[in-house]
Amino acid sequence: EPGATTAPLPEEDCMKLNPSFVGIALSSLLAIDLWASKRLGVCAGEGSAWGSARPLMKVIEVSGHGIPWLLGTFYGLCQTDSSAAREVLLNLLFALLLDLVMVALVKGLVKRPRPTHNKMDMFVTISVDKYSFPSGHATRAALVCRFILRHLVLAVPLRVLVVLWALIVSISRVMLGRHNMTDVLFGLLLGYALYGVVEHCWLSPATTPTLFALW
């Protein structure tokens, strides 16, 4: 009506009509992440572009799974008679458990769903594994890679192989359609950071005598 004043828009409507630059940038990055991840999921199914390589990718997947690493580390602890080896293995076990807890916490908080083209046929999963962010395999690969390079005396070719393994495990997560690229990138950063925590809290006979007495 003439002379009537227009009521101001609610604040939330104003925000929707005038989105911030940061919001637009984040939305654009998310869209690019989803698009690129789907394009790179060339082994997501048997009918995918590289579907014939899917069995090999799943073997790589198992190589970065937490259960083989935990069982292998625990077996090594039970078999070794060397105090130095026992110290390294105990800290590797601590690192693997820390990795599992941190990844589960972040997944439970973020609750990002898996990519739509992912087939849920992974090797041994738990409840939070239905979520995608971050990639536990990438986190573990970065953590184990740093740990091995720091605490095992290896020839240069073997050190290169360890780094390549970590990279291949991480890349395979996107190729299999398990994760988006940002899941893997954050996982690598988280694993790299977790190694610093392990070094800071290094377990030794001097700091945790009771723990070492059990072995």
UniProtKB/TrEMBL annotation:
PANTHER family in UniProt: POLYISOPRENOID DIPHOSPHATE_PHOSPHATE PHOSPHOHYDROLASE PLPP6 (PTHR14969:SF18), SPHINGOSINE-1-PHOSPHATE PHOSPHOHYDROLASE (PTHR14969)
Record field: transmembrane: 89-110, 152-172, 184-203
Gene3D superfamilies, sorted: Phosphatidic acid phosphatase type 2/haloperoxidase (1.20.144.10)
CDD domains linked to this entry: PAP2_containing_2_like (cd03391)
Known EC number: 3.6.1.68
Catalytic reaction equation(s): presqualene phosphate + H2O = presqualene alcohol + phosphate; presqualene diphosphate + H2O = presqualene phosphate + phosphate + H(+); (2E)-geranyl phosphate + H2O = (2E)-geraniol + phosphate; (2E,6E)-farnesyl diphosphate + H2O = (2E,6E)-farnesyl phosphate + phosphate + H(+)
Keywords: Endoplasmic reticulum, Hydrolase, Lipid metabolism, Membrane, Nucleus, Transmembrane, Transmembrane helix
Gene Ontology terms: biological process: lipid metabolic process
CC per GO annotation: endoplasmic reticulum membrane; nuclear inner membrane
Keyword flag Nucleus: yes
Native source species: Drymodes brunneopygia
Keyword Acyltransferase: no
Source organism, top-level taxon: Eukaryota
Localization annotation: Endoplasmic reticulum membrane; Nucleus inner membrane
Family per similarity comment: Belongs to the PA-phosphatase related phosphoesterase family.
Domain spans labelled Phosphatidic acid phosphatase type 2/haloperoxidase: 88-199
Top-level taxonomy: Eukaryota, Metazoa, Chordata, Craniata, Vertebrata
Molecular function terms, GO-annotated: sphingosine-1-phosphate phosphatase activity
Chief location of this protein within or outside the cell: endoplasmic reticulum
The protein's name: Polyisoprenoid diphosphate/phosphate phosphohydrolase PLPP6
Membrane topology label: Multi-pass membrane protein
